[in-house]
Amino acid sequence: MVEAPDGSVSSTPESVKAFAQTDEVPVSDVTGPKGTDACPGEGTAFVIGAAVPRAVEGQWHDREGDQPIYRPLKIFALDPSVSKLEGATAVVNVPYEPLEAGPVGRLFVVSGATAGDPQEHTPLNLEDPNILISSGIEPSTGEKRFHEQMVYAVCSTVYTAFRTALGRHLAWGFKKPEDGRVQLMIKPRAFDGSNAYYDKEKGELCFGFYKSTTKDQFPGHVYACLSHDTVAHEAAHALLDGQREYFALPTSPAVPAFHEGFADLVAVFQHFSYEQVVRAAIRKSRGDLSRAALLTDIARQLGQTGREYKSSLRSAIDHGREMEEEKNKAGGAEVAAAADKNSWPRYYDETMEAHDLGSVLVLAVFEAFVNVFRRKTERLVRLATGGSGRLPEGELPHDLQAALAEKASRLASQFLNMCIRAVDYCPPVDVTFGEYLRAVITADRDLVPDDPWAYREAWVDAFRRYRIFPNSVPDLSEDALRWGGPEQYGYKVQEITGLTFADLQFDGDPGRPASVKELMRQACVLGQFVTRAEYLKGFGLAAKGDPLLNGDEVNLPEVHSVRSVRRIGPSGQVVFDVVAEVTQRRLARVKGSDAVWHFYGGSTIIIDPRGMIRYVMRKGVTNNQLLAKQIKFLESAQGAKYMKSFYGTEAAQQNFFKMLHEEPPQPAEARRGEEGEVEVVPNVS
């Protein structure tokens, strides 16, 4: 615990500690030429996707021995609407890297331009000695340089959370723009409006700003870039997009909902990184995290500046459940009516809007988190209460507050790791909530076989309560939920010679790619293996003319990634693997129509250091039942907005993440403020 110059406590997220204090070998020739070695089968049996060589871009700075470990920076720990007494501001330690004015680093470029303002802006120079000694610019809504500091700091902490959980170098999912930039561009004042979004086509995070006219809530200018949750949410979108080529293809209601729910989970669990916020929440809630609004509310200020007052845009707590409990206690018709009006979505229902359906995922995961927290702190409460377990009236003892806050922060870091690590165990396309549960269970059991506190049981119980059920499993036991290898589909495969750790080349660490040439070699080996006639169907692929295609054409299978990883568990255990992704596109023709649907299948493949396949997460390109379900969704009113952008002639213009955050137009009279101005209705995620 380090005290900042202003007396506040400097917070260091667990992922930042792990990342910044890991010695890594300096990068060698990772940006070298593609190489001219022939790859038998490429272009005839399979193709290698553009994401494979892109995996070497955007390498983090390698700290030299005399450089600092951290760069402390001041931020809004939640947003400007929170009181200083509740930990409104924090000093967060981010991994150190030399920065140019902007700031501009190895991963992020922050733009100081303000939409509609031609005035030249002096970019933020975090290397200025006066700024360095003060841990950055003082938090201020009106100081543009603080806006830039805020987005850089929060995006850096989210990046380290992903990097630590996945155990490898992370590449962005966007193609290199014309200016050759490989960093993610962050625009804190990109446009006048209430939205914020990740622009995949341009490789940008864009945040809006607006003037609120709601005089009794939070009047004045509101900047989405000053909402910690909004910045973390958008950064999570960008990082998740870089892990899968077609993960954001809207094939069902669950896909956009998963992206929204996952990004909200990242934002919520990041709250627990800031000690002052956690302690304030523990104190106010008396240790009951289900009532700790400071930690569970998502984007409080943005929820308080809309047409209808809300304490926040969303929450990780099921308020509908609370109302139902009150209704059962009181038994009154008035309370029952209130429960019906204000209840949150409590059960999985694919007819919900994407944010509402995504909130079901958040509610389920956070409920699991709260239940594990209670198990792990019962002993502390019994010790503090002489064995009774019943807390007395009044404020909790200071030492108990500190102990509970420490437990909550550490557990939140573990849950965030579980959430992110599961991405590597999801199918490459069309992910569902049930498949995500299977991914969490498999990934966690892989890394932590012994589960004395029943983390995985808590996940399963919470998903069951919210009626989130995976398909094709006999029951919800841990063994049934765990993914299997090729044998689960009736295939037995040999080791993949050429992808053993003895054959792979690293850049000093299995989590760092050696070079473009080595990545292309690995992709070639995988492509040759999965397209063997005897293995093709086992990986969800198909040969041309396969009877199950019903006469449809298929493109050649495409290898998108081959990534070696080094994961470290909570007890220090280390697991090495190779995570690979291969997909295939089917051009499906609809009977009685000229429409052609782009239907994707393929597999995510986990390979152990000996080259043996441990898990296959498959979506079959010949699965006609799934194809019919996707067509039904895209032809429905719910999926219509995605059909033209992703499956028609304008598919190249897709901007999935911006579409997620668009709000249907409101009648003019419903959008008028008190003085006749159009009132802003936030829809920022």
Description:
With 685 residues, the protein is of the alpha+beta class. Among the domains are: 2-254, Elastase, domain 1 (Roll), CATH 3.10.170; 486-622, no CATH class. It is 35% helix and 15% strand. It is built from 20 helices and 17 strands. The protein has helices spanning 14-20, 51-54, 129-133, 144-166, 228-241, 254-271, 275-285, 293-296, 300-303, 319-330, 333-342, 354-384, 398-421, 433-447, 455-465, 478-481, 516-530, 624-635, 640-647, 656-660; strands at 2-3, 9-11, 47-48, 70-76, 89-95, 108-110, 184-192, 196-199, 204-212, 220-223, 297-298, 314-315, 553-554, 558-568, 574-589, 596-607, 613-619. Strands 3, 13, 14, 15, 16 and 17 form a 6-stranded mixed beta sheet that branches. A hairpin with a 6-residue loop joins strand 15 and strand 16 (596-607). Helix 10 runs antiparallel to helix 11 (333-342). The protein is globular and about 70 Å long. Residues 24-36, 335-342, 649-653 and 664-685 have low confidence and may be disordered.
